[in-house]
Amino acid sequence: MIESVTLDDTAAIAVGAGILGTGGGGSTYLNRLRLDNELRERGGAVSVIRADDVPDDALVCAVGGMGAPTVSNEKLQEGQEIKRAVRALEDYLRRKVYAIVIGEIGGGNALGPMITALQCDLPVVDGDGMGRAFPELQMDTFMIYGLAPAPFVLADAHGNVSIFKRIGSAEQAEAFARSLTIEMGGSAGLVMPIMSGADMKRTIIRDTLSLAKRIGEAVLDCRARSIEPAETVAALCNGEVIFTGKIVDVNRRTVEGFARGRLKISAFDDFNQQMEIDFQNENLIARLGEDALCTVPDLITLVSLEDGEAIGTESLRYGLRVAVLAMPAPKELKTPEALAVVGPRAFGYEVEFRPMAGDLL
Amino acid sequence: MRIGIDVGGTNTDAVLMDGTTVVSSTKTPTTANVSEGIAAALRDVIADSGINTASIDGVMIGTTHFTNAVVERKHLTPTACIRLGLPATVCLPPMVDWPLDLRDIVGGNAHLAHGGHEFDGREISAFEPDEVRDIAEKIKAAGLKAIAISSVFSPVNSIFEEQSAEIVRSVIPDANITLSSEIGRIGLLERENAAIMNSCLRQLAARTVDGFKAALDELRITSPFYISQNDGTLMNADFAKEYPVLTFASGPTNSMRGAAFLSGLKDAIVVDVGGTTTDIGVLQHGFPRVAALAVDIGGVRTNFRMPDTYSIGLGGGSLIQEDPLKVGPRSVGYELTEKALVFGGDVLTATDIIVAGGVSTPREGGSVEGGALNIGDSNVVADLDSGLVEAVQARIMEMIAIAVDRMKTSATPVPVIVVGGGSILVTGEIEGASEIIKPDHFPVANAIGAAIAQVGGECDRIFSLAELSRDEALDQAKQEASDRAVNAGAAAASVDIVDVEEVPLAYLPGNATRIMVKAVGDLRGVLPPGEGGGVERGA
Fold this sequence. Notes:
Shape of chain B: globular
CATH topology of the largest domain in chain A: CV3147-like fold
Low-confidence stretches of chain B: 360-373, 527-539
Largest sheet of chain B: 6 strands, mixed
CATH superfamily of the largest domain in chain A: CV3147-like domain
CATH class of the largest domain in chain A: Alpha Beta
Mean pLDDT of chain A: 93
Distance between the termini of chain B: 28 Å
Helix content of chain A: 25-40%
Number of domains of chain A: 2
Distance between the termini of chain A: 12 Å
Order of helices and strands of chain A: EHHEEHHEHEHEEHEHEHHEEEEEEEH
Mean pLDDT of chain B: 86
Structural class of chain A: alpha+beta
Number of helices of chain B: 14
Number of helices of chain A: 11
Oligomer: heterodimer
Shape of chain A: globular
Largest interface: A-B, 41 and 41 residues
């Protein structure tokens, strides 16, 4: 397990976080640039601690960015948003935060919390609330296993900080946070949830930052040796490569702010052998014929065949040559409570969750 | 009549066209002083046809000169950047993602100021004229005159960039200013990068365009001349001095547009075989399909609408390795006519194999210019093992087939147009191709693409559908794009909308949608190519 993150590690973590992003979670490009800048200026490293090293009575908080990638690629962050949110929270609670938790390990939100950790001079916990990417706040293990959604904090580039002291449910937190994010210009920093060390240890998916780094290192190593990385990554994640081929059709539409669609991949040697994947920001169901081979919350990621770079659902297009990685979800996402929130039916599919053998880690 | 010229890294090609007919064409070596090569090519085509230079209506030039300047870090002017968007954007200042050597050359002189807009048009913060004036004074003190100005969401509202430019000019009267909203799309760093590169190329652009003019003057050609842009449309010479970055990647675009024109096809795959690489692109409605992702130029990320091409290391000069069999990616490149066996050299190249194989190429729609069999001395390669020759030919076709398959837009077989100086490499069927077309004049398709180019305009911004209906927003975007095409020199009656793309903003409710529209039309005052040509305008 890793104990720190230095400039030498960010490339691998970005690649690994992309693969755990299951097609969503946003690009890692800008957050990696920011993290590299921050590490260069401070000349140090992000200190990483194990979840079990956090005292039960310590206060920790998960952080991440909220909003539309199109907006955050244009209106770049001021940079101190989440740090101010954390400080405001400490003032409000009159307690110090002990460590920063990664809300979502998949995509760009894997790297943002390390920037906050550096700025606040705090360690980051090796683990996260999703083990992948999901689109909504109630879909992390902290909410699924009953932690309180309030208080939560949103902050913008102007220095505005909004603390929600009480909120009825995680779903309401999601709705309020999203409306306020629009008012804040379409992207905002989020601190949620705020929890005790004991609660965090009861609900977090452990060691996913280390996993992201291992995955990324394996991919970079394969690239250096001109080997297609997909099988290596699958083995690392107890998963398998369920299909390789070429994308032959992408059908997408946006419904209520979420990109939904279906893509088809044809095998190289037999055009009629096709895999279909349904996505809603993230890849959710992979089918071969009528058969659902892999279903959410198990992870489905398309990687470019040659270099193993994860392909986001916004970048899908005809002709890309891909390997489809299926990886078992972490066990925390496979309980009845979790499946009610992140199982296929929660996303509107009349399909049973048929878990792959094993767990992500 | 019009003349099309393509200035590549190795060759300068020129064609003289009368309407849709190619009157004459030539290939000459590119010279260190680009204008000399152009003058030589012009002399060739004019002498060849015996026409009077007074009958030339326009000269269209495609050039990779400015791309190469960035890639080679040559002739770049130190440039300052002013970005409006405080308090946002501080964490990633201008030029933050540039390679260090290039940032050193360009100077890294960056300033942040208040201003900018939100995605829905609200101001991020109020514009502060005094703040910009202070920055302008600092830039003046640093002795810089090249300046790029960017403002957050300036494609939605460019007012702050314009106001800043006015203030900077009041402090530095001869400032050379690029506004990011004039050249780029949404995506701040990428658009700003393009604006900075544009300002740092302007001195070179002025010299180069003046050089082109001198070459034309020398031959007493008095017609207007134009430079081709990356989207396959033209800009006039004065505009090219102002916006040199818009020439980036015009080479592949011209060759694909030329292929469309020569074949009469609007939808096809174009395979452009050169000396070292083969570029494969897709024609949609007669225009190249554009890349969806960010494009690196000399290590700098930009979001230009570049043609989506896929390159493989295969060309006429590709080295052949026998055991294990390998074709390319190493190549003798422009030294082909010295190093290949058939030219008396001692290197086995793809060209030697084709000559040995005797070349029987499918050539629907025309004969092969110059006689493909008539390359070098075929006796030298007569003894080559026929098994090897066949194996290499098969390998070449396999490489092309895989690359074509990668770029295809549907599973159905599509026509494949083969152009470029290395086209003789294509000797058989391509899997997945409905037909293979090697049109007349295929070696100079790029110059033809330059000759037939039109002018265009774009609109790319985010519309809020709270106040407008979707149709109204689309109409507004189309009108803006058409107006820009007319401003750029298009005859109003000929302007058509060729591309509409709509991307609703993901992860946000509230009905904001990004609309990108492209319009093109024929140049005012220059005869349109007329019927039957490749200047198709899709719906």
